[in-house]
UniProtKB/TrEMBL annotation:
InterPro entries attached to this UniProt entry: Beta-lactam-related (IPR001466), Beta-lactam/transpept-like (IPR012338), Diverse_Enzym_Activities (IPR050789)
Organism of origin: Clonostachys chloroleuca
Annotated Polar residues bias: 10-28
Signal peptide range: none
Superkingdom of source: Eukaryota
Protein's name according to its UniProt entry: Beta-lactamase-related domain-containing protein
Length: 418
């Protein structure tokens, strides 16, 4: 995609900085900051999301893989490209229109489709944005199964700084379900995240480890827990802090031990933190496309064999797949976020009517992230569909709907035995 007019200005930042000594060849070596590139410019977004450990303004921590590798098989004869074309979708056009940098379909451990665009390769990590929340809520479930916490405990039990605040009686599961009823002080009765929210511009760059929680003390209560749905990222900062304190180790280390290693990830990941080194938990996880599929396949083990997959309480993912709590203010068409999905404990659950009814019948559920990231797990087909994207418009819900319908088409093809 050719640069737009505004990208010409950004290109100026690519010019090396030169010093005065032109006789010295090394003086021609310059530097520039990737973070200075315009993130909303389609010419740059795939690059920026692919190199997030270098472009985050604060810092990241490494999430290390272990010695076990989950291997996928690949049979060219079972490739889905032809069937997708016969279903009326031109894969090249679809990936181009919505800025997809990668798409993978894994069924019962076999790769049915794996495509990359815009310079991404199988080894490229991409920022999966809010799909990070699905990993964090899974860690919460694992910690419950280990007896380290209860999802029905109030957050103040683990984060003592939040006692005597609006957060005090909010349970961990209410946080994970974006139903805390707590918002920041504002003239807006229900303030929403904006492109440059206060926590990102003022608090996350702070090296004071107490800065964010001190800000949380100023929040106000606008509803009882579970009464309202408000997709609000600070909920997951509070949740991540609680999990880390309950298990007695940094979130990234717990993520490495309980998901990255047993899931058989091939590559290390990177998790965004504040400048004080605290994982925020609501986004910023950089991971390869195939490792997204490995996580999905790890979750699917829970549906095949009791006690397999992530060590979560019995029926945890089954309840999510059935949309037990994605009702009322969290229901599809009501939550005001992704109209075709309801929200449930860090995951999205498709509506049981309309274009995605078949996905609901197949007990599908998934994670979505800004700029078109998608991970949908389809238990009845033992299939995972993962999409990474460099779409330039963070506010567009159109790309989520098209990703969901694309996934529904793939599910229909597989359900027909093709």
């Amino acid at each position: 995609m050719p640069p737009t007019e505004k990208s010409d200005d950004a290109n100026a930042s690519l010019t090396p900085l030169q010093n005065e000594d032109s006789s010295n060849p090394s003086s021609k070596i310059g530097t520039f900051q990737l973070s200075s590139l315009i993130p909303d410019d389609p010419a740059f977004t795939p690059l920026l999301y692919r190199l997030r450990e270098e472009t985050f303004q604060n810092r990241t921590v490494q999430v290390r893989h272990g010695s076990y590798l989950r291997r996928f098989t690949k049979d060219p004869a079972r490739n889905l490209v032809k069937a997708i074309s016969e279903a009326g979708i031109n894969l090249d056009d679809f990936m181009s229109e919505y800025g997809l940098t990668g798409c993978i379909v894994v069924q019962e451990g076999a790769i049915r489709l794996e495509e990359y665009r815009h310079g991404n390769t199988p080894a490229s990590r991409n920022d999966i944005q809010s799909i990070t929340k699905s990993f964090v809520s899974t860690l919460m479930a694992i910690a419950q199964q280990e007896g380290k916490l209860s999802v029905n405990d109030p957050v103040s039990r683990y984060v003592e700084e939040l006692k005597d605040t609006a957060w005090a009686d909010v349970t961990l599961r209410a946080l994970a379900s974006m139903s805390s009823g707590v918002v920041e002080q504002s003239d807006d009765p229900r303030p929403a995240d904006i492109p440059n929210p206060y926590w990102a511009t003022h608090l996350y760059p702070s090296q004071d480890p107490n800065a964010v929680l001190e800000w949380f003390k100023t929040f106000r209560k606008v509803a009882e827990p579970w009464e309202e749905f408000h997709y609000y990222n600070p909920n997951y900062y509070a949740l991540s802090t609680a999990i880390s304190r309950a298990v007695g180790e940094p979130l990234e280390d717990y993520l490495s031990r309980k998901i990255w290693d047993p899931a058989g990830m091939q590559y290390d990941g990177y998790l965004r933190t504040t400048a004080a080194g605290r994982a925020d938990g609501h986004g910023g996880l950089s991971i390869t496309l195939s490792d997204m599929a490995r996580f999905g396949s790890f979750v699917l083990e829970d549906f095949k064999t009791e006690g397999a997959g992530p060590g979560v309480p019995k029926g945890w993912f089954k309840e999510i797949s059935e949309g037990r709590t994605s009702t009322g203010p969290r229901a599809p068409g009501v939550n005001g976020m992704v109209s075709d999905f309801g929200y449930e404990t860090g995951w999205w659950v498709p509506a049981r009517e309309g274009d995605l009814a078949q996905l609901a019948e197949l007990k599908a559920f998934g994670g979505t992230g800004m700029y078109g990231q998608s991970l949908i797990i389809i238990p009845k087909l033992q299939t995972v569909v993962a999409i990474q994207s460099g779409y330039h418009d963070a506010s567009s819900s159109d790309v989520y709907s098209h990703n969901a319908r694309f996934t529904a088409t793939i599910a229909s093809i597989i359900a027909q035995g093709k």
